[in-house]
Design a protein that fits this description.
2 copies of one chain form a homodimer. Chain A has 337 residues and is of the alpha/beta class. Chain A has 2 domains: 249 residues, P-loop containing nucleotide triphosphate hydrolases (Rossmann fold, 3-Layer(aba) Sandwich); 51 residues, no CATH class. In chain A, strands 3-2-4-1-5-6-7 form a 7-stranded parallel beta sheet, sandwiched between helices. The radius of gyration of chain A is 24 Å and the shape is globular. In chain A, helix 5 links the parallel strand 2 and strand 3. Chain A is built from 12 helices and 7 strands. Chains A and B meet through helix 3, helix 7, helix 8, helix 11 and helix 12 of A and helix 3, helix 7, helix 8, helix 11 and helix 12 of B.
Amino acid sequence: MSKKELQRQERRSWGRIETNINELVSGVKENKFSSIARAISMVEDEDPLLRKDILRKIGAPTKKAHVVGITGPPGIGKSTLIGNLSSGMMTRGIRNAVLAIDASSPFTGGSLLGNRIRMQDKLRDSHVFMRSLANRGEKGGLSRSAIGAVRILEAAGNQEIIIETVGAGQADLDIMNLADTIVLVLAPGLGDEIQAIKAGIMEISHIFVINKMDREGAYFAMKDIEDIVSMDDHSDWKRPVVGTTSKDNESYNSLIEAILSHRKYLEMNNSLSVKRKFMEMETALEDEINENITSKLKKKLIEVQTSGNKLSNDKSDEDPFSVAEELLKNFLEYSVE
Amino acid sequence: MSKKELQRQERRSWGRIETNINELVSGVKENKFSSIARAISMVEDEDPLLRKDILRKIGAPTKKAHVVGITGPPGIGKSTLIGNLSSGMMTRGIRNAVLAIDASSPFTGGSLLGNRIRMQDKLRDSHVFMRSLANRGEKGGLSRSAIGAVRILEAAGNQEIIIETVGAGQADLDIMNLADTIVLVLAPGLGDEIQAIKAGIMEISHIFVINKMDREGAYFAMKDIEDIVSMDDHSDWKRPVVGTTSKDNESYNSLIEAILSHRKYLEMNNSLSVKRKFMEMETALEDEINENITSKLKKKLIEVQTSGNKLSNDKSDEDPFSVAEELLKNFLEYSVE
């Protein structure tokens, strides 16, 4: 095949991808589950150009979604709670979607699966879109995927987007920053663990849930949290403590009320999704720098290493900072300070 | 105070910091534990200039250290094993230090503490330097701290640096990349869990340990792993499976032998610390870009947002990618492609 023909073919296949992405984005905006799933997969992949292309075509939402982050220790019943919360919202006509974040390690992944599958079944019955996002190895990759996925779910017209994290690491905390409303789920009998939890997570939570209210000591646990919370409250938002139990479907209504009233509070203060928009900008900026500078210079670093073999050679223990400074200086050579 | 006086004072205090860092680095090279601890704390802090200053002054090591990463599921007895491994090395005259990585979440942090404290006591008795590194919130911050800490421990003249991770997340895996030798610790009766572990971690490990060999089924577990490993072996290094138990101190000798023989294997192939040197370069490059470009542009982003109030304003749902592109374009305006 001649060079011209190859170029023509390349352009054609680009054209095809172009059409496909436009179709995909239309599908997303019509709330087609298959399109949403595919769009999220594409955003999850590590091709930054593709991610940018899709998210750009999705554009600004016609209506802002409210992002609710649900976190808490493993085994506290978050999946079951989310299943009931989400289907309860649907019953009230509030369209919502669920993102389950899986930042677990290779050693602790398995145990959560069962509950997630039961949740998935429940959500399917209620026609709720649900998707898991897993670690793909890249630093910060999970929170980048989550940002993209939320934008897609917002474009699909969801009013509420519920994000579940297993609370298993730094990635989870980064993702919690996406949420307009953070719900911390606890259970009776945690005792000492609450002391450990207090540092950090308590402060950033907007709503507290005591799950498994049918258990002994539930009301004491609620009282404990209420005491801690009332001492810490420094904003206009009085943080509620809500009790839930899978034995009583009605109990989720108070949680829905609390979530909707925090949404209203944010809207009144013009702060719905402000933090998220800023994270989108920061991530886009990081991507842009990575694509145009960092990845190019890393390639250069590998070239330097493999050609001159300077790094593997015993005596040339070069100062990494000088190498880095030189690489960047050369890159910016003609730029103005 | 006049401007001149202020400047003079500033210079003086800089001079003082300068002297202190030089003293600190001398202390590190004399293997003073207090200096090592302080240097690691400074590298752990988020001031990139200070980190750069210290690591640069530490310079190239006179003798390369061998970095051993020890990983495995929580509760498998890693801390006890490391205590015995490290003191066993000391008995043989092999100077070593221990870094314990704590990438745990706010929800799961507490349970490990007891074993770590027992390990710390054991190590103190053997005059081994031991330090924990914890998550400080920044993306990739933990692996950055670990890189710096290893460099400091190497400068202090340690021949072996043992890194323990709880295997609790992405950060742990990043840090495992620092290790010349990865030791995967398992125990009898894991059964199904080994299936889950197989993905990823098994492939990158160089030595396998069945700990708690006094337990029932220990020899079957060893045989299982030996079978899996022998099928997967594609390099000249035949990956050994070693049994250990805290009931028999002698059992750690075979682990020490395996570690030393992998070190010898790497040295013969000129590959000791090659991967680590490359990570140091990459990290230095990322720091350099972050300091000179990313952090400046993020500040600019905040300025744009707060001044024009463009992002919090309802109708201006700007495309984050266009904002990012423009910011970077302006920055690089005069640079050459």
